[in-house]
Amino acid sequence: MLLRPFKSPLPRPFSSLAPPNPNPNPNPTLISPSELETLILSHYRAPKFHRLLSSVVSLPSVLLAAASHLLLGSHPSSSDPPPLPSPLPFSLPSLSLSLRHGSLDPSSPSLSLRLFPSRTKGASLVLPSLPLKVAIEALRMVLASVFEPRLATFAYGGRGPAIGRHTAARYLKSAVESPSWWFRVALRREPFGPRHVRRLCAAIAEKVDDPDLLALIERLFTSEALAIELGGVQLARGFPQESGLAPILLNIYFDAVDREIQKIREEVHKRNPRLRSLPNEEDSRVFHRPIRVYAVRYLDEILVVTSGSKLFTMNIKDRILKLLEGELELIVDKLGTSIHSAVSEKMEFMGMELQAVPPSVLNPPLSEKAIRARKKYLKRKAAKAQELKNARETRRKKLGLKILNHLFKKLKRGHAVECGFRIESEVRDIFRGWAEDAVKEYFSSKEHCFYWHRMLTRGDFLSLNRIRDQLPPELVESYDQFQETVNKYLMPAWASRAFEEEEERRAEEEEERRYAKRTVDDLTELKMRVNAPIELVRRAVKLAKFTNSMGRPRPIKLLLCLDDSDIIKWYAGVGRRWLDFFCCCKNFKMVKTVVNYHLRFSCFLTLAEKHESTKRQAISHYTKDLKVINDNGEAEVHFPTEKEIKMMGDKNLADPKPVDGALSMILVRLAVDEPKCTCLAHFCTRRDTVLYRVRLLQNRLNVDPMNEKKWVPGMGAIHESLNKKCFPLCSIHASDLLLGRMSLQDIDCTSFVNVEENSLVPILS
């Protein structure tokens, strides 16, 4: 068996770095975010920041903070991540010194590695090593501190989990009112080339006066250690070909577009102010809907929505495209940037489907069946509350009897009962409440009311006409009023009939009011509906072989070589990625069905195929929740249970990664008898590792992801050069990678292990 770590052709440590500092700081400390912000502000001389690379990015404390960020990303399942290893796997003083002198060369073999795919026509991939990733992360932290406070409020992506896809979707659902026309800026797929880099450096130079920093960014793009594809589907998906620096650079690059859109919005708001003198719309027949412009930008995706005319929208589109094609030198797909009706046409944006619909579509009225079910539920809830109330009354009576019995015994024996405080008012309030409850409960019984009605009306001589004629009219009138009151409140038939009629009248009035309000709202306003592209989800399910040609679940034979727990974890990772990504959508139930049925039963069939059993036996062994026994003999549940899926909904604001990375990659465990290698997760020092081989979906199916007819439109793919690469991983990081909690972006892919094809075999458990 031949197993050796991959070594670059020139194994010189930091061949492009400056010589180490003769007096480096032996114990640098980790800098906090507030201290970093203070340090950056100390280099501000109006109107620019100066010497950020040599004075901030290159500091060992800032590099340690960047390494700590990478460590947090590679330990998502740890509530208390381990500290950075000491010593670090690279020379921190050398990296700091090379950054300070501006001599860091990303194309050095010790800082990056170029991988070639198996196909002759395939493009190569340059991956940064761990020290270069630390330098890039430190640069990202500094640029984010400088530029993020100046970004527009409708710019999402790359700004933390609280300003991501779900926040943008919530803004569209809550803020956009009565949209009429919209368009999405479709960019032609092209690499971020030299002309874009020049424009980016010019945008950074408006706030940062640091030639060394701009030169470093240019070298990153020239060496291809930092690559951005405009108009593609490779951003914010956790792919190894992505860079953590790309989102903030895109936000800086598109900031000119954001300012232009903000200027357009201010002009429209100024020309069409909202009238504050109108009465409340709920009580008025006058509806004022001023023209508004809404915009959302997620990295390089731009959506503009208007509530004006089509000609008005065309003018806005022309202004934005003129800026994109002129100042930013971007190539815009004119056909894909067409204006569409917000009501009759759906719009694909951020991997979701948008459409303007009446409010009744989002909140439809209850059907007759739902109304009956709700009444049944309320009745059952009232019965349960009554049982609890009776139980409390019973406990209260028992406690009162115990207290009275105790006091009686004390008095009987001649002992005086002493109390240190006056309790007459508290006792009076308690007994008043008990009495009111008792009277209310007594008169709510029809039998008691009928008894008192019979006692107050029988044998009354004042009802005789010959007696009434001899009495004063005031007495007769008072008696009649008394009888009417008795009949109203105590006669069971009359009281119940009057109560039912009153309830029916109130219900009819409330229903008429709701119907009128619903009709007026449907005629006067529109809301944004965010849906999951369920057809694309089903197509992805079919492409990944979860289902057969008939749409029935089927096993995936490539997973048979994995342990039972790893098989379940892989299915759970794909399912949770889908559930987390589409939890803010209106048709989330359909995504739940895909995960709960297609993925769950495909997992059962895969386990049954592995153990040569039937599906029923697999369900009986693993239960419907797919429980598996770990090494400690404890049952673990990785796949979301049916109850958990049923209770899922719109979560807290987050920016989840799509399912692309988890769906298009399978980790195959290999048999290894050689000495263990160190885990490749960032700053993980464990050596009890297992070797896993990456198998990519596009290589297994022999499909080009650029071909949308054979691939799923809008779904990205991991670069094909990583296919069949072997990574040693510890049990924790292998589990996190299978469960979709982390991605290949959190692994040092440049340190993969070279394995000959005929020397290793998969483990058959």
From TrEMBL:
Q: Which organism is it from?
A: Ananas comosus (Pineapple)
Which residue spans adopt a coiled-coil conformation according to this UniProt entry? 499-526
* Classification of source organism: Eukaryota, Viridiplantae, Streptophyta, Embryophyta, Tracheophyta
What's the protein called, per UniProt? Putative 91 kDa protein in cob intron
Cellular component GO terms, alphabetical: mitochondrion
Keyword list, A-Z:
Coiled coil
GO terms of biological process kind? homing of group II introns; mitochondrial mRNA processing
Record domain Reverse transcriptase: where: 1-354
What would be an example GO MF term here?
RNA-directed DNA polymerase activity
Q: Name one Pfam family in it.
A: Intron_maturas2
Ranges for region Disordered:
1-31
